[in-house]
Amino acid sequence: MHRRFDPKAHHQVTIRREVRIEGIGLHSGKPATLTLKPALPNTGIVFVRRDLEKPVAIPATFEFVTQTRLATTLGRDGVTISTVEHLLSALKLLGVDNALVEVDGPEVPIMDGSAALFCDAILSAGFFDQSVARKVAVLKKRIEVRKGDKIALIEPSNRLQIKAKIEWAHPAIGTQELSYTLGKSDFREVSKARTFGFLKDVEALKKAGLVQGGSYENAIVLDETRVVNPEGLRYSDEFVRHKVLDAIGDFALSPIPIIGNVTLVKAGHEIHAELVQSIFSNPENYEVKTLDEIESPVDSPIAVGQRVLKSARVLQGSF
Ligand SMILES: [Zn+2]
Asked: What superfamily in CATH does domain 11-313 come from?
């Protein structure tokens, strides 16, 4: 069925058909697969553990975050799903509001440590305009979370813009800054940026039975002075790009998509989650509106989808 739609209206979007993604779990090192399925308007992103006798559904919202060390883990009734952030980021980057994510175990596959392969899968599934207005949480005031020298703050705006800065006393990282606007910037500015870790930490984690699937195939690995991966970096400032990718995935844990100008300094999963939590802890902090009501300058999700699909065809094979 092909419905007519207004490409300028900010409607909710789901994927057009289901798509399966296979990889390995970062912690288990064992095969992990997931299936993305279309979902009804106002569903949001919901994970489902299909391997259990009684499948458990876990909505991707901050109330269900159980852990933010190394990666973001969601849990409900003692059942968990970890490493959700890069998949959530891919869905947000491409403007998908509603989807079911069925997983066959406790981990989303790590893939190459970025969101690139998830983006490929979503693009191959295509987009479906749901003819229902997309609602957002519009901030009424500035909200800030500080932890030592880490800062995460958001100020009112009619779009979601993330400005991130990292400062790392490592010769291969140093100070890096990036600004990204959802619905305006090109998703490929951040989608291929990989997660990173230090050789000494990786060895300790492996001994502790964690990151059994971790390798040069799914992370940038650094020793004391340089990047160890033989192929080097994908972007000269890949580290801050990955931070932005993570932040988009973590902000996707909002029960209603947040818009505002975000500033992040030396931030990570934990402080991102705390910012989302403080926004939604008080209903006085925001108003729920449609993107059309606030005359948002960002492109409609379906316009983003159309642009992406067009460019994806042109650039096919470049990932
Ligand atoms: Zn990450």
From this structure: lpxc deacetylase, domain 2 (3.30.1700.10)
Of the listed ranges 104-108, 201-205, 243-247, the least confidently predicted one is 201-205
Residue 272 has pLDDT above 80, yes or no: yes
Measuring CA to CA, which residue among 300, 291, 287, 298 is closest to residue 156?
Answer: 287
**From the CA of 55, how far away is ligand 1's center (Å)?**
27
Render pLDDT for 44-55 as a digit per residue (tens, 0 to 9). 999 999 999 999
Catalytic: which of 10, 11, 86, 269?
Answer: 269
For the chain, domain boundaries: 11-313
Answer whether residue 149 shows pLDDT above 90: yes
Spatial distance between the Cα atoms of 293 and 171, rounded to a whole number of angstroms: 47
Report, as an integer, the average pLDDT of 22-34: 91
Structure-token match 């490592």, residue found: 170
Task: Note the Cα 133 to chain centre separation in Å.
Answer: 22
Element (H, E) at 276: helix 269-280
| Centre of ligand 1 from the C-alpha of residue 293, in Å | 33
For 181, other C-beta atoms within 10 Å of its C-beta total: 15
Report CA(203)–ligand 1 centroid distance (Å): 19
Compute the distance from residue 93 Cα to the ligand 1 centre, in Å.
Answer: 14
pLDDT in tens, 242-269: 999 999 999 999 999 999 999 999 999 9
Alpha-carbon distances of 148 from 15, 151, 269, 291, rounded to whole Å:
41, 8, 15, 35
Q: Which amino acid is at 30?
A: K
Strand (E) or helix (H) holding 298 = none
Is position 2 annotated as part of the catalytic site? no
Q: What is the DSSP letter of 94?
A: T
Measured in Å, residue 273 CA sits from the centre of ligand 1 at 14
Give 287-301 pLDDT, tens digit per residue. 999 887 887 777 765
Measured between alpha carbons, how far is 229 from 317 in angstroms, rounded to an integer? 22
- CA pair distance 274, 279, nearest whole angstrom: 9
Kindly report whether the global pTM for this prediction surpasses the value 0.85: yes
